[in-house]
Structures are given as structure tokens and as C-alpha cells.
Design goal:
Two copies of one chain form a homodimer. Chain A has twelve helices and twelve strands. The first copy, chain A, binds a DNA duplex (16 and 16 nucleotides) through helix 2 and helix 4.
DNA sequence: ATGAAAGCGCTAACAT
DNA sequence: ATGTTAGCGCTTTCAT
């Protein structure tokens, strides 16, 4: 039974309650330096009895060390960033470091504001999505004097370290797989580009792969907002209506792809033979669908882990480092909606066998 | 062109660069007090040129005010908490306050640890999910001397304020709707209970409603982990196999409900006449499905808003308050998978008309 | 093993 | 409108 304090408790309160100097109390509470078992026990008892919660603000100011890692991402709502966060948390859970998340909603000015706000708390490091930032944001990052890891994308120049996949290459790889599987009348559906650089780069890579095969995209449509599943369904309906000769639909994310797939299945389309579909992301939410949508894993979990590992490694006493680059290689999952390309001839195939 | 500083910049640096006292620089940077336009401009220029980022740690220590609101929730991965966050952010975006999120993964000890960590940063308020906490956590909350809002659930005693729905009542309401619609052989599928108090309360309320109508649950199954869509499909398959006479399936969340629905549709079940289904949550992700799953909105967005409003209101200068209770009333969405109950007779119905 | 003094970078309160 | 002084609650460093 303790009386609720008007004023938050301080080290001094614990010091007085235990009859030990503030300094020693501080040592006990941080498990630092030599303290006799007897003193330690007395301090711990007093702290617990009072319900003392240390003031990290004062601690951080005095020690010039903060165990926070700023994580700045566009959104939490599309399933990709929560997975990145999982990876980050897994790694940081084994350290003293704690992630603190800020959201940009895909807006550069907002990213700049969030970054400023977070840097003002002097975090131990920053993990942020993408390589595109305002000049001011880039300047802040460069001058922060702490490890900075840009994640998701590697198509560009990082301020410091970067971990991700090449979205340009991912788009190209999918385009090539589609061409090799024999599809040729391709439609694309995706998010409005200017907001999402990575979706844009995938689109560019994809277009390029088709172009190399002499194929021009037969139709395309972009959306913003709304439930992705519904949007995928609606866009697909509209596109198949408008351009019925399409034999492949490429979606910029699995959620709209799933909506499209459900629509096509209802319509009784012959998938993947007369019509192929593919999405992007490897959202495992969707594995319960009647057919498994072809997709490409964005390595989100691994990206989170590797980024956190870089921060953690550089945060330990007197560590060196800087400019780490980790390029992950996503792979296509063919699922049930994309024909596998014919096996390439074996180098020394026995053709007569 | 500024040279990257080894040591982070301080107010003093800006003071020297602008030839204005630290105090005045501080005033300019916080838009407080009277400062001449000339001085203001000089300070702002110097700060920007240097790339100064204020140190909120020092600021918070000196002013005893922190603009952070601790938000402690179980998880980000099931679509319900991201929506709560949206509501919170919308409201806090119009204030000086900023949400900081901590995750408990539905574990009380973890909640306690996260709470301790967050309180040590002396936030302006705490929003946390649920009314069930460890004794230590409850004590910390009671002694923190800041507004505390417990959200989601109102079936219990709050430490301070609470905003949510009665999950017990939500379960009961759904049970009653099912009974009134004439279903009688009911199966239940849900998450493993001990982890999720709100799911447990819904289950209890549901069971009770059935019991009052003399109905005993015909089958039930609980799961943990894995993709919810797949689990819903698998559990449904197993249950329909085991207990083919079922005419209603109640799922503890929309995601497993969606998996079950897809399975039943594939099997050609006659929905909602021979078989009804319902979930919980009103996840609008799922509106793209072939049939609209009956569900009940958990008012997540509104809960977030109201909780944030309470914190915001109590944070303004000299505000009073405490113990606010907001009970929201979720409503059933019948969708395409639950028969509407027959209209109740009108009070003065003209029976002969 | 413990304590005393100084100061982290800011802001409140009080000058002027 | 601007400056000065004295902390905020800790930790660092140096004594003992």
C-alpha cells in the first residue's frame, strides 16, 4: 500500500528510503559497478516498494546514450511493413535497443517531419524505407552521426547503409518469366505511381522486360485508396471488359491480385492456361485462396533482420562500420496462376533418349 | 555546405552563430514569447544553415513535459490494431502529441515490461488494450500521474478511463441473432482463449445466448498461429467432416471466417439457407469476397479516436478529468451469410391489413 | 564498495 | 524584447 505520488519519484526518494546514496542506487538499478549484495537487496526492495520507475530522460541526457532505434516507414496497413517490423524486433529483442516507429504515409514532406521529430530524441540509429528523400531529410541523415540504414530498395545511392532488393530487377524478372511462359497480351494493374517509388521501379523493370521481347503492354490501370481486394476485383472486371483478348494480368501487389483472381475464378476463366495472373509480395495471408497466386517474395522479414543487425553491430562499444550494402534476391513463386516456363535444354541433353 | 559535426549541435552553437542569447534562440525555435522579427529571422537562418536539430531530451527534462503518448497493444498483424492506430493518429495529428507504440504479443509479462520501459520516458498519457494486466502493471498505471485509457473492452474495472465495446455482449448479440434466424446446430471456431481475453468474453457471451435458447454448442475448435485464412479453411473442413449436421459456423474473427467461407463456397454449400456463417470485426479487407461474411463491427477506428480525444483533452493546460467511460455499441452486419431474423411484430400491427 | 561534485542541453522564472 | 540564473534527474568522473 503506497500512496499515489503527486510528483513522480526520483532516485533521491529511493536513496532516502534505502539509506544509500543516489549514486549507489543508480549503480544498482543499472547493474553497473561493484555493489555489495546487502546494499543491492536493500535498494531493490526500496525501489520496488515505492514503485519507482527510472527517468530515462534524465538518464539519457546525462549519459548521452539512448537505446532507441527510429524506424520510419510509409504505412502499417498493407501487410508489408508489419513483416519488416517483425524482423527488426526479432533482432533488437536480443539487444538493449528498442524500435520506435514513425509513419510517413508515402509523403516525403511527412517523412522529413517525422525524421526531424525522431532525431530530436537522439536515437542510436535510424532505419527508413526507400532511397528517395527530400534534400533536407538527406542532410539531416548525413549529419546525424548515427548509423542510418535505408531499406527495401537498392536501386539508388544510400546515405549510409542499405538493405533490400532491386525492384527494377524484380519487375524485369517477372516480365521475363511471363514472356518465357508464352503469354503475350499483358495487362497491368497497380497503385498510383508517384506515391510509391518501389512500385514504380517494378513497373519500369517489367515494361522493359516485355519491350525486350517485343511486347507492348496491352492495357493498364492505376488506383488509389479503398479496399485492395475490392479494387482488384473492380479493376480486373473493367479491364477484361475493355480488353478481352488479354492473356496475362500483372498486379503491383498481392492484395489486388487476390481480388482479381477471385473475380476470374468466378467467371470461370481457365487459369493459368488461357489467362495467367501474378502479384507481388508473397503475402502469406492469401495462401487460403482457392488457387495460389503467382508472386515474388520481397524478402521483407529478412530485410528487417539485416537492417537491425547492422544497427546493432555498430552500436556496440567502439564498433566501426558504415556503408554496408545488402542486396537480397527475391524468387518467383509460380503458384497456380502462372505457367512454368519450359525447362531450358540441358547443357549436354541427350536429345535422342 | 556544412561540415558534418562530430558532436551534435547545441543551442549554444546556434546562439553563437546568430549572435543571440541561448534563451532567445530557444524562444524562437519554440515560437514562444515575444521576439522581434529581425531576431527571429536571424536565428532561423542560423539554425537552418547549421542543420540544428533540437535536443528534446534536454528540453523534456527542463520543461517536465513530453509530447509522447504511449500506445500499448498486442500486435500489429491482425488488422484490428492498425485501425485503432489510425483513429488515434487522426486525433493526435491535430495536437502536439505523438503516439509511440509498444507491442505485447498478448503476453501480460511482456505488457508489463513494455509499460515500464515506456513510462520511464514519462509520456503525457497511456492508451493500452484491455483491462487485464499484471498487478505490477496496474500499480504502475495507477501511480503514473498521467491520463490512462484502457481500450477495446469495457467488461471490467478500468484504472482510469476506458473506451470500448462489451465483448461479452457482442457475443451474446450474435448468438441471439443466430437463434432468432432459426439456426440451431452451431459450431464455433476461434483462437486459443487464454491469450485473448476479448475473444474469450465473446465466446462466453455467445455460449450464454445459445444456452438461454436451450441450444448447446455442437462443435468447437481452437487454433493458434499460422495464416488465418488457411486455418479457417482447414478447421472448417475438419469440422464439417466431423459434424456434418451443423447449420451455423461462428468464427472468432473475420479472417478465419473468410477462409471458412471460401471453403464452403467451393463445396457448393447453400449459404445462408442450409448453412450460415459469421465472423467478428468488420474487416473491410474482405469485402472483395464472393459473398459478404456476416460480422460485427468492433468500432476500432472510433475507439482509437475517442481514446486519443480523452488524452488530448486532459493534456491541455490545467484540464481536469478522470475516469471517463465510453461504451460503444457494435452492430451486426448480416451480409450474405446470415439470414435476417423475421421482423418482430409491430407494436400495434394491423394484423388484418 | 561507496560517496561528492560537476554537468548533460535545455527551459522556467525572474530580471532588465 | 532580450538576458541571467538556477535547476530538471540522472550519470560521469574522481575521491575515499
Amino acid at each position: 500500500m503506497t500512496i499515489p505520488p503527486r510528483r513522480p519519484l526520483t532516485l533521491r526518494d529511493v536513496s532516502e528510503a534505502s539509506g544509500v546514496s543516489e549514486m549507489t542506487v543508480s549503480r544498482v538499478l543499472r547493474n553497473r559497478g561493484d555493489v555489495s549484495d546487502k546494499t543491492r537487496a536493500r535498494v531493490l526492495d526500496a525501489a520496488k516498494a515505492l514503485g519507482y520507475v527510472p527517468n530515462k530522460i534524465a538518464g539519457a541526457l546525462a549519459s548521452q546514450r539512448v537505446n532507441l532505434v527510429a524506424v520510419i516507414i510509409p504505412s502499417m496497413s498493407n501487410m508489408v511493413f508489419p513483416e519488416v517490423m517483425m524482423g527488426i524486433s526479432e533482432v533488437l529483442d536480443d539487444t538493449e535497443l528498442q524500435p520506435v516507429v514513425g509513419l510517413t504515409h508515402y509523403r516525403a514532406e511527412r517523412e522529413e517531419a517525422v525524421l526531424y521529430e525522431m532525431l530530436s530524441w537522439r536515437p542510436a540509429g535510424v532505419i527508413l524505407a526507400g532511397l528517395e528523400h527530400t534534400d533536407a531529410a538527406r542532410a539531416m541523415l548525413a549529419n546525424a552521426g548515427i548509423p542510418i540504414v535505408e531499406i527495401m530498395d537498392v536501386d539508388g545511392e544510400p546515405v549510409d547503409a542499405m538493405v533490400g532488393i532491386s525492384h527494377r530487377r524484380a519487375g524485369r524478372t517477372m516480365g521475363e518469366a511471363i514472356v518465357q511462359a508464352g503469354y503475350s497480351r499483358v495487362g497491368f494493374m497497380g497503385t498510383k505511381m508517384p506515391l510509391d517509388h518501389r512500385a514504380r521501379k517494378r513497373f519500369e523493370g517489367f515494361t522493359q522486360a516485355l519491350a525486350r521481347a517485343g511486347i507492348e503492354m496491352a492495357d493498364r490501370e492505376f488506383y488509389a485508396g479503398g479496399s485492395a481486394l475490392v479494387k482488384g476485383r473492380e479493376m480486373t472486371a473493367a479491364m477484361m471488359d475493355r480488353t478481352p483478348e488479354l492473356d496475362f494480368l500483372y498486379y503491383s501487389n498481392d492484395m489486388i491480385g487476390a481480388g482479381g483472381l477471385l473475380y476470374c475464378l468466378e467467371r470461370g476463366c481457365d487459369i493459368p492456361d488461357s489467362l495467367g495472373l501474378a502479384g507481388f509480395n508473397g503475402v502469406n495471408l492469401l495462401r487460403g485462396l482457392p488457387k495460389h497466386l503467382a508472386t515474388m517474395d520481397a524478402c521483407r522479414h529478412e530485410i528487417g533482420r539485416r537492417a537491425a543487425e547492422i544497427i546493432a553491430a555498430r552500436t556496440i562499444q567502439g564498433a566501426q562500420g558504415g556503408g554496408e550494402v545488402v542486396v537480397l534476391e527475391p524468387e518467383i513463386t509460380f503458384g497456380d496462376t502462372l505457367r512454368r516456363p519450359p525447362d531450358p535444354p540441358l547443357p549436354f541433353a541427350e536429345v535422342d533418349a
